[in-house]
Amino acid sequence: MADTKVYRASTTAPVNIAVVKYWGKRDTKLNLPTNSSLSVTLSQSDLRTLTTASCSALFPASEGDSLLLNGAPSDVSGARTQACFRELRARRASLEAADPSLPKLSTLPLRLVSENNFPTAAGLASSAAGFAAFVRAIADLYELPASPSELSLIARQGSGSACRSLFGGYVAWRMGAQENGGDSTADQVAEASHWPEMRALILVASAAKKGVSSTSGMQQTVATSGLFKERIATVVPANMAAMEKAIAERDFEVFGEVTMRDSNSFHATCADTYPPIFYMNDVSRAAIRAVEAINAAAGRTVAAYTFDAGPNAVVYYLEKDTEAVVGSFYHVLGGVDGWKTAAIGGLKPLLALDEGVAGLLQAGVSRVIMTGVGEGPIKTDEYLVAEDGSPAKR
Amino acid sequence: MADTKVYRASTTAPVNIAVVKYWGKRDTKLNLPTNSSLSVTLSQSDLRTLTTASCSALFPASEGDSLLLNGAPSDVSGARTQACFRELRARRASLEAADPSLPKLSTLPLRLVSENNFPTAAGLASSAAGFAAFVRAIADLYELPASPSELSLIARQGSGSACRSLFGGYVAWRMGAQENGGDSTADQVAEASHWPEMRALILVASAAKKGVSSTSGMQQTVATSGLFKERIATVVPANMAAMEKAIAERDFEVFGEVTMRDSNSFHATCADTYPPIFYMNDVSRAAIRAVEAINAAAGRTVAAYTFDAGPNAVVYYLEKDTEAVVGSFYHVLGGVDGWKTAAIGGLKPLLALDEGVAGLLQAGVSRVIMTGVGEGPIKTDEYLVAEDGSPAKR
């Protein structure tokens, strides 16, 4: 009798926000970067993707592999998604070849269902968490013995920065040197528990649609920026070394300065692209001025801004400096959604922000997200595919 | 009997807007730059400083040298102004030593009166025109046989970019190699008449006060930007060579592209400064998008933006493309001051600018200035100091 079981595995995966940025590919097909990068994995209590991977002989082969993302069918025919399917199936097929008693899952259509716990409108890049959950869930479904680093190599082919979301804590993506990308993988620089006091306040700037996707933007930078090669050759290697040391020593002053300098350097190469790419706007710049004012008032670096390929500010700080950092932003942005009022009740601002800065933030920040460093992907028994193979009712 | 004559000389001097930017000093005392630069001298019909230099034994020595700038006393005790006085007096003293029949003007107090024909509120850097007129007027008063290049060496010590305002047309400031700055002078790459069709449309962005002065800003960049040295070593030398060739060949496509790329590169190094320096704002970026849209609609580079240390856009174009360039901006900005309506009557826009871009421009551009390439300093018999030595009534 045919195997009519619906095989399922579910995992959650985190968002990560780089403090040394990935920008530029040396191989666009394999998603091999021009430089190493380093990120902090954010807590899944606040930001995570939940993905269930399932396969079954009941699923019509004619439908092929499918992905339901936040309730809507999502195209899986893209080269990057296909690369992930192919890599994972090949590994499963090897296991099956070595042990004929294993069910032939590699031959079955995959049905994936995925949901984020944060609004898409937040303008947060969800592709890292998405591809990490995608790869981790299928690897669990296939019971692959692969390490997170090995899986990072697969996730990288889906979305570069996804490889860093396979680990919790502080994560480096080593650019590697091999032509086939075999050594372009992520590893954990430090566990979340090594420096658990790291917090992040995300200021979501009213999200107009991104002008230039990161995928095309970074290659325009590689092709046209006269300053980019200096970033790759000198700036990033120095920042990587300084950042790893700062994390090892839990030195926030250095962590913060390198984070801000690297964000500046990345956006400088965007501005030097021809035609220039601008991800930051006047609201983003106001957030920078606010962080500078908070640090000046504190007399040390208590807050560090960083910006990805969009106007949202991510402000890193340590728990002990919550009042100085969060209090100052709450004072002007108390009216928007997202504050964890229990954590910030009664906080006094360290300073009153400049009126111009406050006005720009009030006009442009639509919500905040309060989070902190967190763990890597977590296996869960919460399924988005029911036992009969249909998308679970929620 | 004592000489009670009031000696006077008057000159006008132009504004120049660089297409390869000066940003960074290798010697702050002598104003020696880290790189060569190149500018277009703008017509004095639209933008000029008029300066009268006078000296007389009637002027009380106790008052020393003085400068009345736009009707208000201006401090002349700064090291840069003093350097200009000193250099000019030394040259006059040499003449007097060689020819004892000459009046001893070098020993008399200088009284300077200076006026701009454009509103200070326009936010245009007037120091280049100001120091060029200052040096040229005193040199004329002293009847110095110095060439414009020799005077450029003096004006450079007052304000770096002032050295380029001693020439009309297309002007290079060669960074030089000598420690004493003896070879860091300006020269004329081409006369205005070589390529007289060059026009400039200046979009004056409602001028909030500059956050960071260029003098301190550029040295922060030199000290902290990891990308800056690449600009100096590679980007600018290539841009200088390409720009000189483009001017020689009257090739606006190349002139425009290099102008835009060099402006981008300069502002990228500002953004890479720590803390970052932002001169451009969302209005500036809208002007860039407008230029890109105009060029895309024209199917070639008909307009080129450049930004100095502030949010104002300067858009270079050729007279034959007035309709395409000016017409498109006039269509959305017709309500602000500064249009030469005779020149633009009946102009049809090449395209309707994107609503977001148009809205930002309408909200942020307070006036426009229409001008073009022009001549260097011009001696005039319009005096701002009367024959009796008092500031002239006007």
TrEMBL record, chains A, B:
**Which biological process, per GO, is one annotated for this protein?**
sterol biosynthetic process
Q: Where is the Mvd1 C-terminal domain?
A: 200-378
Q: What is its EC number?
A: 4.1.1.33
Keyword field contains Transferase: yes
Question: One Pfam annotation, family name?
Answer: MVD-like_N
Would you say which domain of life the source belongs to?
Eukaryota
Molecular function terms, GO-annotated: ATP binding; diphosphomevalonate decarboxylase activity; kinase activity
- Which controlled-vocabulary keywords does the entry list? ATP-binding, Kinase, Lipid biosynthesis, Lipid metabolism, Lyase, Nucleotide-binding, Steroid biosynthesis, Steroid metabolism, Sterol biosynthesis, Sterol metabolism, Transferase
Example of a GO cellular component annotation carried by this entry:
cytosol
What InterPro entries does the entry give?
A: GHMP_kinase_C_sf, Mev_decarb, Mev_diP_decarb, MVD-like_N, Mvd1_C, Ribosomal_Su5_D2-typ_SF, Ribsml_uS5_D2-typ_fold_subgr
Q: Tell me the leader sequence span.
A: none
- Which leading EC class covers this enzyme? lyase
Q: In which pathway does it act?
A: Isoprenoid biosynthesis; isopentenyl diphosphate biosynthesis via mevalonate pathway; isopentenyl diphosphate from (R)-mevalonate: step 3/3
Catalytic activity, as annotated: (R)-5-diphosphomevalonate + ATP = isopentenyl diphosphate + ADP + phosphate + CO2
The Diphosphomevalonate decarboxylase-like N-terminal domain sits at: 13-185
Q: Which family does it belong to?
A: Belongs to the diphosphomevalonate decarboxylase family.
What is this protein identified as? Answer: Diphosphomevalonate decarboxylase
Biological source species: Lasiosphaeris hirsuta
